[in-house]
Amino acid sequence: MKITAKRIITAITLVGGAITAYQVLSKPQPVAVPQSVETVQANAQSFDEKLAQLEASRTQDGVPTEARFTSEEVSAELSQSMGAVPETVSRPVSTAPNSPDAAAGPGQVQVKGYQVQLVGDVARGQFVTQVAGQDLYVTLVGHLGSRDGYVTFDPTEFKVGDFNIPVSLVNSALQKKLAEQREQLKLPEGISGLRIENSELVITAK
To answer: Is residue 35 within 8 Å of residue 44, measured between CB atoms?
Structure first.
């Protein structure tokens, strides 16, 4: 049987497509070590206490101060904010969905879980969402900061499953989405900025 160049290219394309689909649907290595419910509650409480101390220091002497948060504290705070684990203390009522499996509104992504790992001056985040009933693991890496009173994020890496997607292909869409949600990214009153430094989230009070 004569083997044509077209058939070879078609075969290679099919193999490549199968590999890509497998990479997209595969579960990548987690960006952080999972925490127990008790550890999440303790770290989330530590996050809240540090914020309260930051606010108290600002109110007492008016001198700008900083609070530093570990990866574990940030991940725990996100987990409790999303309702992934029960809270040990009462919090102000939030307008965000109270469950990671809550129905998302039009144009929103349903997020089932989130992990954060702070490394050097970058944040590595990983969340799980569903497309056509399949769990997709999205990993996003970049520089978290602030400008003119708003949170900013400049991506350096983007993955779906184990499949790397060039940042240049997604950055414009990401920045557009952030611009649409600009008011949600506004820093709270009394906070002048935030950044990632020495593998910690640093929040500065005015």
So the answer is: no
Please choose, from the candidates 95, 88, 44, the residue with its C-alpha nearest in 3D space to the C-alpha of residue 69: 44
Edge-to-edge strand order for the sheet containing 111-119? 111-119, 122-131, 134-147, 150-160, 163-165
- Please give the Cα distance from 65 to 182 (Å, whole number): 25
Residue 176: count of CB within 10 angstroms of its CB: 9
Give the tens place of pLDDT for each residue, 152-179: 999 999 888 888 889 898 888 888 888 8
Q: How far is CA 79 from its chain centroid?
A: 11
CA 73 to chain centre: 13
Q: What gap in Å lies between CA 180 and CA 159, rounded to an integer?
A: 23
State pTM to two decimals. 0.72
